[in-house]
């Protein structure tokens, strides 16, 4: 029950002046239920990569297995794959088109062939999951605020009840409050349903707080792959490719360099605070 | 997918054709298009083929790219060929079955017509492939400048054209994105009858229109914020100036027109019925 990529390469517009190798020999496996973060600077191939996971883009070479089956086999049911691997695009609000929010969210389940009642039930559940206020269900999607549109669009994918949810920068262009709300809801969703979640992001802070594993992309190649702790240990290399580890990593490393007994691998603010408190208590103890 | 449509796009490369003055390319393209209509004979088309081939070769645009540009007219092409083939009468009968008759004249017209159409599209796409939208507008504006005297808003028209051209790839990209987003939600654009397919376009067209209006609005704001106020009193950073190569291009094209006119009209050469 997993997604496996084997030596995937992808070239945009091969054979023209615009030729561009967007993915180079990317391989990894995402087991069911994992919360994975994909980070990389602008143009590193994140969006291209995730469009492979539900077959929207076909790899130039390499294989992709979903639940052990090659999705490029001739008799593979692509539509079923797309309903099981839900993909929320970057700026998903631009896909809204129906007369009201509820109908728009029903679009996915309707395409899956559910009855109108089931569609509406799924849509309401999905909207609730993303914390979309019920009073706007009958509003035109074009009259919502940016954050509300984003939620409606995410619900549009969730309503298909996917087993894997992929989100491409779901918080781009949102204010800090909207960002935290959406990420918290995704984390809750992951916790409660055990759904696999793939989160694409620029922000190390966001990713570090929520995910079990980070894949770092650089110029179309997989550069690092591991738990946040393992990945942020390479913070010097991350800096070289235009990324940065979370602020706390720097603070912890500096403290360590100044002789404090802290664990520099702490990745979230809470962990770091605990470590620092521990270090201070230790010092006081030693002084007393 | 939809990005494969190449008609009207700019192909960035270094070549003799790219470096010509846009006015030259516009005028010569028009001359080429006219040249296709002043004759209708095998030798004439041979001349046109040689000229077009030479320009394509010089332009460094891959032939594959130009052929791709012909794709959108395939239907029109087939329609023309079939219509001419069966409906044009004249000369001896070549084939006759049931109610259909193919005559010599029909075959001749349909073949020439197909070639002419393809050359029309290929000829004009060479111009857009090798001239940036900005260049095209500048050239157009300068060429039509005299019309200003009779109150034609030349600058505005040129600006509208260049914006329209510039937006083709952007909107194609946008369509591609929206299509993918709807496919991720299970939309199906490939199966079903015509009505179902037309209905399946709604989830693409609505967001596309919304985004086109949004972009137009943003662009208008951005232009206004930079004090754009139309053509009056506007100067150019790089005014267009003719160089030696431009004069050479004019000369060669005129020479070609004369040759195709003389050869196509007055040299009586026929291969079978063509
Ligand atoms: N449709 C396309 N045609 C040609 N090249 C493309 C296309 N889409 C993306 N690219 C190129 O492929 C590379 C990877 O793009 P991609 O969109 O996957 O990056 P990304 O990591 O998602 O960036 P961002 O963080 O800005 O979203 C980029 O260099 C981009 O220029
Ligand atoms: Mg992206």
Put the structure in a nutshell:
The complex is a heterodimer of chains A (288) and B (274). By secondary structure, chain A is of the alpha/beta class.
Q: What is the SS-derived class of chain A?
A: alpha/beta
Net shape of chain A? globular
Average pLDDT of chain A, to the nearest integer? 89
Order of strands across the main sheet of chain A: 6-7-8-3-9-10
Helical proportion of chain B? Answer: 55-70%
Distance between the termini of chain B: 39 Å
Can you count the helices of chain A? 11
The biggest sheet of chain A amounts to: 6 strands, mixed
> Which series of helices and strands of chain B comes N to C?
HHHHEEHHHHHH
In angstroms, what is the radius of gyration of chain A? 21 Å
- List each distinct ligand once: adenosine-5'-triphosphate, magnesium ion
Helix amount of chain A: 40-55%
Outline the structure in words.
The complex is a heterodimer of chains A (288) and B (274). Chain A has 288 residues and is α/β, with parallel strands linked by helices. Helix content of chain A is 42%, strand content 22%. Chain A contains eleven helices and ten strands. In chain A, helix 3 (101-112) runs parallel beside helix 5 (146-158). Chain B has 274 residues and is mostly helical. Chain B has a domain at 2-154 and 237-266. Chain B has helices at 22-37, 42-59, 63-70, 74-87, 104-130, 133-144, 154-184, 194-200, 202-225, 244-266, and strands spanning 93-97, 100-103. In chain B, strand 1 and strand 2 form a beta hairpin. In chain B, helix 1 (22-37) packs parallel to helix 10 and helix 7 (154-184) packs across helix 9. The longest helix of chain B has 31 residues, at 154-184. The radius of gyration of chain B is 23 Å and the shape is flat. The mean pLDDT of chain B is 88. The site of adenosine-5'-triphosphate (ATP) has 14 residues of chain A, from strand 2 and helix 1.
What is the topology?
The complex is a heterodimer of chains A (288) and B (274).
Chain A: E1 2-12, E2 20-31, E3 35-39, H1 46-53, E4 61-66, E5 69-70, H2 78-84, E6 85-88, H3 101-112, H4 116-129, H5 146-158, E7 164-168, H6 176-193, E8 196-201, H7 204-210, E9 213-218, E10 221-226, H8 228-232, H9 235-240, H10 247-257, H11 269-287
Parallel strand pairs in A: 3-8, 3-9, 6-7, 7-8
Antiparallel strand pairs in A: 1-2, 1-4, 4-5, 9-10
Helix pairs in contact in A: 3-4, 3-5, 4-5
Chain B: H1 22-37, H2 42-59, H3 63-70, H4 74-87, E1 93-97, E2 100-103, H5 104-130, H6 133-144, H7 154-184, H8 194-200, H9 202-225, H10 244-266
Antiparallel strand pairs in B: 1-2
Helix pairs in contact in B: 1-5, 1-6, 1-10, 2-5, 2-10, 3-5, 4-5, 6-7, 7-9
Residues 46-47, 90, 168 of chain A line the site of magnesium ion.
């Amino acid at each position: 029950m997993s997604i496996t990529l084997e030596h995937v390469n992808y070239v945009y517009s091969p054979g023209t002046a615009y030729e561009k190798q967007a993915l180079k020999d990317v391989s990894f496996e995402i087991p069911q239920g994992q919360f994975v973060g994909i980070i990389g600077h602008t143009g590193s191939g994140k969006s291209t990569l995730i469009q492979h996971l539900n077959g929207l883009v076909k790899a130039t070479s390499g294989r992709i297995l979903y639940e052990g089956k090659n999705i490029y086999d001739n008799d593979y049911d692509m539509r079923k794959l797309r309903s099981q691997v839900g993909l929320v695009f970057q700026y998903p609000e631009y896909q809204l088109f129906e007369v009201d929010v509820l109908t728009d969210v029903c679009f996915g389940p309707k395409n899956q062939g559910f009855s109108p009642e089931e569609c509406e039930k799924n849509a309401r559940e999905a909207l609730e999951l993303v914390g979309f206020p019920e009073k706007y269900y009958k509003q035109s999607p074009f009259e919502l605020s940016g954050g509300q549109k984003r939620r409606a669009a995410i619900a549009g994918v969730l309503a298909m009840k996917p087993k894997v949810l992929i989100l491409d920068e779901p918080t781009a262009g949102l204010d800090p409050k909207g960002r935290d709300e959406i990420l918290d809801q995704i984390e809750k969703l992951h916790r409660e349903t055990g759904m696999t979640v793939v989160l694409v992001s620029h922000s190390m802070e966001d990713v570090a707080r929520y995910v079990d594993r980070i894949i770092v992309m650089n110029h179309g190649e997989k550069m690092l792959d591991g738990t946040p702790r393992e990945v942020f240990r390479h913070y010097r290399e991350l800096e070289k490719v235009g990324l940065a580890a979370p602020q706390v990593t720097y603070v912890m490393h500096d403290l360590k360099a100044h002789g404090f007994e802290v664990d520099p691998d702490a990745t979230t603010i809470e962990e770091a605070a605990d470590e620092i408190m521990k270090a201070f208590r230790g010092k006081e103890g030693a002084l007393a | 997918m939809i990005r494969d449509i190449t008609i009207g796009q700019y192909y960035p490369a270094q070549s003799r054709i790219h470096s010509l003055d846009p006015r030259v390319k516009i005028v010569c393209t028009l001359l080429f298009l006219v040249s296709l209509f002043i004759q209708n004979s095998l030798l004439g088309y041979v001349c046109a083929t040689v000229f077009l081939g030479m320009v394509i070769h010089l332009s460094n645009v891959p032939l594959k790219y130009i052929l791709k540009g012909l794709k959108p007219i395939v239907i029109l092409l087939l329609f023309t060929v079939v219509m001419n083939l069966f409906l044009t009468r004249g000369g001896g009968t070549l084939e006759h079955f049931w109610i259909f008759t193919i005559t010599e004249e029909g075959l001749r017209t349909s073949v020439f017509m197909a070639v002419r159409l393809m050359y029309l599209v290929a000829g004009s796409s060479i111009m857009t492939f090798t001239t940036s939208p900005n260049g095209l507008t500048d050239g157009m504006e300068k060429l039509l400048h005299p019309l200003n005297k009779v109150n034609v808003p030349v600058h505005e028209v040129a600006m509208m054209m260049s914006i329209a051209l510039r937006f083709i790839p952007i909107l194609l990209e946008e369509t591609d994105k929206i299509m993918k987003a709807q496919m991720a939600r299970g939309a199906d654009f490939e199966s079903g009858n015509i009505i179902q397919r037309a209905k399946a376009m709604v989830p693409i067209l609505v967001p596309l229109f919304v985004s086109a209006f949004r972009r137009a609005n943003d662009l208008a704001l951005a232009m206004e914020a930079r004090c754009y106020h139309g053509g009056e009193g506007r100067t150019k950073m790089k005014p267009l100036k003719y160089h030696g190569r431009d004069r050479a291009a004019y000369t060669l094209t005129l020479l070609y027109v004369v040759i195709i006119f003389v050869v196509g009209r007055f040299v009586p050469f026929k291969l079978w019925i063509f």
